[in-house]
Amino acid sequence: MTTGSPDYRDIGLEFPPGFLFGSATAAYQIEGAAHEDGRGPSIWDTFSHTPGRVVGGDTGDRADDHYHRLESDLNLMERLGLEAYRFSVSWSRIQPDGKGAVNSRGLAFYSRLVDGLRKRGIRPIATLYHWDLPQALEDAGGWTSRDTAQRFGDYAAIMGEALGDRVGTWTTLNEPWCSAYLGYGSGAHAPGIASGRAALTAVHHLNLAHGIGTQALRSVLPTDAECSVTLNFHVLRPGDDQAEDAMRRIDALANRSFTGPMLTGAYPADLLADTASVTDWSFVQPGDLDIVNQPIDFLGVNYYSTAMVREWNGRGPRQRADGHKGTAGSPWPGSDFVEFVEQPGPYTDMGWNIAPEGFEELLVSLSEQFPDLPLMVTENGAAFVDEVRDGVVDDADRIDYLQRHLTAVHRALSRGVDIRGYQVWSLLDNFEWAYGFSKRFGIVHVDYDTLERTIKNSGHWYSELVRSRRIPAGPRNER
Question: How confident is the model at residue 2 (pLDDT cuts 50, 70, 90)?
């Protein structure tokens, strides 16, 4: 076991040559220009404009106005010294109806983005889907429709053909757990449907889209291009000494419903048994799992916190502290008797507990489960309440969070885990989905009235890390 500070506040740890430091964003959260240059509506346009769905009635119509501020934002990335930038493509900006003719003006925007990154020596990492399904496809069934996976393959081929000569790293889906279980199970995210069967149907069609999309990319990309998928893993803790089955159930729903088919070619038998009362899984057709189980070059890992579960005893209110916005629906089909127990703090502004040891545990566990598959940290970060005072954002809590979690990454590296890089979430404060503009994750502050950007102290700290390749001291180091 690697030694170090028990609180994960190590300093001076050096990262190996080639380890890629960057930052990440998502199209709907930052771009704005929702009705410009031929872009069609997405499910998040519809959802955010539906009263009561998003805190404060916020929408991504303007967001950070990244679409119009591309050059200055690229200069900001260069100033920070980023080695990589993980962005997502708005499908409805490329194909306004999710199929058919390509919108050349939308494609031109991403071409300019990629060229601007390469000009500044920043490696582009393109994510094809970060939750913003074209509304026209949702009207035809969305991810509950098998056809959506086929349309995703067409879209993937379009993007690979257009940018594959300049983008060497591709991700099919970002966090399909959220798309399926929050979008179609709890209804907390777009399209806002609350149905356990719909959620599990969406799980499969998202898995299928990953397989079809990877095949489509491989058919048009250079042979040395990298293909991947990004999953948000739930690291579970027992809520009592009889929590083993609850942990197994949630692990199946949250983690193995994706790693099973994607990485081993099969859905876990216990997942199918646990959800038999919800669906018979007849939407899985012969040959599907061979399509889903495509070789990938690395697995994207998103991590923020842990979750504590146990069986509900039926007495008193059932705790639902799973870290997601509460709704009438459930993101846990077939497991309504499992409760999520509130964990000890400290917490981020999202109410998520801070647990860097869970990050190290996750990275090591994934390496043990899939020993030949490299990992890339594609999101990790924290929301805190930030204010600009005299031109400075002193976000000591975020620096502390990043220091401790980067220490966890380094400890996993030291234990032999093949980790290729770390992309901090997020470059900019942005539209935080159902929480609107009420939560700030950026290492760069955005004034939502003026759209002025201010690099936070965490941004300067991260910039020093990238420059030196060593973890700098944080605000709570006493040495």
Answer: low
The pLDDT tens digits of the residues spanning 238-274 come to 999 999 999 999 999 999 999 999 999 999 999 999 9
**175 noted as active-site residue:** yes
Catalytic residue among 339, 360, 379, 432: 379
DSSP for 369-394 reads HSTT--EEEEE---------BTTB--
The predicted model scores a pTM of 0.98
Catalytic residue among 31, 83, 138, 175: 175
DSSP-assigned letters across all residues of 260-320? IIIIISS--HHHHHHTTTT---TT--TTHHHHH----SEEEEE---EEEEEE--SSSPPPB
CA angle 166, 172, 178 (to 5 degrees): 140
Cα 166 from chain centroid?
23
DSSP-assigned states of every residue in 74-102: HHHHHHHT-SEEEEE--HHHHSTTSSSS-
387 is catalytic: no
Give 439-474 pLDDT, tens digit per residue.
999 999 999 999 999 999 999 999 999 999 999 999
Closest CA to 159 of 223, 84, 209, 91: 91
